[in-house]
């Protein structure tokens, strides 16, 4: 489970899509960029269980940003 998930717009003009995010997973901090097409670019290390983590991020971003 992801903990302390945070996101913010990459741009001052919040109508431009693109977000940075960070979270903790298994006691380690991870960060990345969530692009408009749903692609994730990791900043630094890639989390273990990357596929499952990406699914959780997509669900969170859909809930917080697109609804």
From TrEMBL:
Any Pfam family hit: DUF5342
Family annotation (InterPro entries): UCP037692
UniProt protein name: YheE family protein
Native source species: Sporosarcina ureilytica
């Amino acid at each position: 489970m992801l903990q302390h998930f945070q996101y913010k717009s990459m741009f001052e003009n919040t109508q431009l899509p693109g977000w940075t995010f960070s979270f903790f997973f298994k006691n380690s901090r991870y960060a990345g960029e969530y692009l408009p097409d749903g692609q994730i670019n990791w900043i630094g290390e890639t989390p273990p269980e990357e596929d499952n983590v990406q699914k959780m991020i997509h669900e969170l971003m859909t809930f917080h940003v697109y609804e």
